[in-house]
Design a protein that fits this description.
Four copies of one chain form a homotetramer. The first copy, chain A, is 22% helix and 34% strand. Chain A is an alpha+beta fold. The first copy, chain A, has one domain: Roll (Thiol Ester Dehydrase, Chain A). The two termini of chain A are 22 Å apart. Chains A, B, C, D: It comes from Mesobacterium hydrothermale.
Chain lengths: 140, 140, 140, 140
Amino acid sequence: MALQFTIPEMTAYLDKVFPQVQGMFGIDRMDEDLLIMRLHNDERHLRPGGTVSGPAMFSLADVAAYVATMARIGPQALTVTTNCAIDFMRKPAAGVDLLAHARLLKLGRALSVTDVLLYSEGKPEPVARANLTYSIPPKG
Amino acid sequence: MALQFTIPEMTAYLDKVFPQVQGMFGIDRMDEDLLIMRLHNDERHLRPGGTVSGPAMFSLADVAAYVATMARIGPQALTVTTNCAIDFMRKPAAGVDLLAHARLLKLGRALSVTDVLLYSEGKPEPVARANLTYSIPPKG
Amino acid sequence: MALQFTIPEMTAYLDKVFPQVQGMFGIDRMDEDLLIMRLHNDERHLRPGGTVSGPAMFSLADVAAYVATMARIGPQALTVTTNCAIDFMRKPAAGVDLLAHARLLKLGRALSVTDVLLYSEGKPEPVARANLTYSIPPKG
Amino acid sequence: MALQFTIPEMTAYLDKVFPQVQGMFGIDRMDEDLLIMRLHNDERHLRPGGTVSGPAMFSLADVAAYVATMARIGPQALTVTTNCAIDFMRKPAAGVDLLAHARLLKLGRALSVTDVLLYSEGKPEPVARANLTYSIPPKG
């Protein structure tokens, strides 16, 4: 399915609708098969022991599923997360970015479902996995 | 099961282990049946449309499950979230705090399981529900 | 919200739409606050060690969420499960029925969300918890 | 990681530990990257409308995660599911087998995490996705 945004267009769109997280996330790759986003390494997200916090990992998975959905349906600000299940599997590496590999599994009229694997940059094994459902508003 | 912390002790403990979120959360009630925590209404967590963001709701559910577990096992900084499933059911009300009602369903040797309902303060219907598993480190 | 079925009506409805599981489940209580259903103790569902199998527990949680939804919206055969997260927390007791305590948390136009706790009859601690989302077909 | 079973050995093991489901499942492929299992098309699992039931899909995902774990750790009958989240995304095709593609994402000392995609045989799009955590008993 053709994408409705280029990476620079999506980046500008995110900055506009989520100004409070501007600069926190980047898009490395966005095509029909795979979206790769990164959470820039940032002291504010650290937990005891120096790892990225669970909420920061959730945020990255959530924004990746949002971008994977938006990329196909075009800008619809009222699209919202309805469900997420996330497994935290390994301690993220300190001092590197966190990468999300997101694949859209379903795009229906009312819902999208996205699978996400999270990696510490440069490490082969995922630190977390997540699946997210977004609710897509009916066309007006 | 007797609790290992009073509310002031738990608040001081959270400030120590999570200094980056100091002042973000409060504990309204903490006893063997129910824990009630609040996320103070704060502009930084807003999404388009003025609602509390999904990641902020996840954070509140996560810290509530952490506190519910810690309250029983005592301070163990290496206790980490291994799994969460969360349903976002209604739009949170603007301008009020978000409350988490957390109930510990299981405390095993290696895992705890907590159910959480999230409410906009003053509203009867939950805005979200979550269940979280924490992994408890083996005793040294 | 007023219920659209009595217990005998719901039992007859389940027998009609799910004839392959006739007699497997019973309804102990069905009102606006709480639905209690039971899975009759039955050798076919046993796992190694004599416990009820995970799939049988899933089935009970699934049918309980279905009944909790149907009870409010009336018979709509195309209502389907879209999502379930389930935690298996304790080994069910051998030789007794399994009970589901189900509470409907949300009934929207397109989705319902139900929380379920599963108990071995006569035991105070839940053996499992589940949350289920059902998709409700648009009115024709 | 080397596997501890061949396909015939695993099939024999499943028949022994789960005699009540003998013949229900088959293993198409089992190697370090991917496990493919099938649920034989069978009238007993049908829902209204002729689709495979949700509990039958859960069963297939559950046994696939079990086999993916056992294949690596060797026979340990007390290994049990602790958590599953499953999304039902499309109506399964009538009259064909259901296939599970399972990938083990984590094998720790105490837990394994497996991702599963379910397909109607011959169809490119998944009908469901699931993630399952198994608890592995401590070595005696």
